[in-house]
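Recall from the previous chapter that SMILES is a line notation for molecules. Here it describes flavin-adenine dinucleotide.
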Amino acid sequence: MKPKERLAIPRQKPKELVPADRVTNFYEVVSNFDQETAFKEADRCLQCKKPKCMIAGCPIHNNIPKFIGLLRENKIEEAYWAIRETSSLPAVCSRVCPHEFQCEGSCVRGKKGDPVSIGMLERYIADWMVENKKNIMAPCALPNGKKIALVGSGPAGMTTAFYLAHQGYACTIFESLPILGGMLTVGIPAYRLPRNIVNAEFDALKNCGVKIVTDVVIGKDKTLEDLKSEGFEAVFIGVGAHDSRKLGIDGEDLEGVTHGVDYLREVNMGKPVHLGKNVVVVGGGNVAIDVARTALRTGSENVFILYRRTKAEMPASQAEIDHLEEEGVTIEMLAAPVKIHGEGGKLSQIECIRMELGEPDDSGRRSPVPMEGSNFMIDADSIIPAISQNVNLTSKEGVDLNLSRWNTFIVDDDTMQTNIDWVFAGGDAVLGPQTAAKAVYQAKVAAESIHRFVEGLDLREGRFDQES
Ligand SMILES: Cc1cc2nc3c(=O)[nH]c(=O)nc-3n(C[C@H](O)[C@H](O)[C@H](O)COP(=O)(O)OP(=O)(O)OC[C@H]3O[C@@H](n4cnc5c(N)ncnc54)[C@H](O)[C@@H]3O)c2cc1C
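With both inputs in hand, we obtain:
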């Protein structure tokens, strides 16, 4: 096919459930490409010699032109293994990565039109493997008799276990909750990431000999030192960021105020939660959007998002904002809560203030400035602050691990080693709330370091992540 012909193919769109059919259930909203659509989209890739999508866009540097090239040749299984060379979670990342800010945001085709739909092509390949009952994990090395403990079963813990199990380490994941997957299962709703996708990754890890222990809180039921005494030669901390950040305003302790990730955790763990008819969600990121869309699915009728900047500054992806609005959530822009009013210990109204945009702040976005005297009230049954999360530090009980001023674990960025040589950390526990792909990358770096540490090798010389 000539480049001109490739350029003439429009970006292919996936089918989606219509909004009225979405909000009554948790079925996946976006369908996979069918074969014809996937091949058509793959034909749009220009196979750049210096692919920015891979080098600058993808946090784990997936070889995007290679897997798209193989897909084009109908070598789908080979395409999958090309992704697996760098990614521990293709089916997950293809669904939840913020592609428009990463690979697709760097695609040259995006300069004069629409970028290649890289996420959907990755998903097509990953789902094809599952649909065709192919093994999604390469065989692991024979056991080397060395034990490693992973604290937390989110993408960071899963990825560290994935790479170490492949090298023959006996890995045990300790998870405080009864369900596995971290924010992939207790945060992100199933309509964006079906649970069978995450479960398949755990099945593959178990087939590789990874042991999984749930309902154990490290730092409380067992300490890091206990793990060392039990013969684990190194420990990886991937505990994420699960403590909701508070608004810090009067009335936050009233009944009817539930924080974002706490609400999502309850729903995702199958507990019956009803927020009432009128719900106000505070925030503009992924979590706020997931909370608002979930509230509709758990029976609320009028769901508002209160955001202190404008839609243009929302850190969520455009596709998520579109889905949110299609489903009937209203975004109340340039407004912030100042006080929560109640009667008899229960929330009744939220007092808000109008904002205007001032000078850009450290993030480059114009900062919201309150407009004096512009206070107004909103009646609500529930308010859900979803403005960020902090790291829960229970896991460090009894050990003197260094922390940053944001109470995240401090590591050497090149190795993910903490100030205690046998303890490594990565993912949201180090970065604060970020993305699955960034957790995967840090976990990969940590896995390589743990191997080097256990083998008595130099932690820095000749690493995979220093090769290019
Ligand atoms: C609602 C929501 C939506 C999101 N949407 C996206 C998205 O669309 N795209 C994207 O890329 N990212 C998204 N993220 C962020 C992404 O999920 C996280 O960045 C990622 O899961 C971090 O991985 P992690 O392994 O570091 O931590 P987590 O996934 O948080 O996993 C940490 C695990 O450690 C366990 N744990 C904690 N303390 C202990 C302890 N003391 N002992 C034992 N276990 C412990 C926790 O229970 C948890 O299972 C979203 C997050 C949320 C909350």
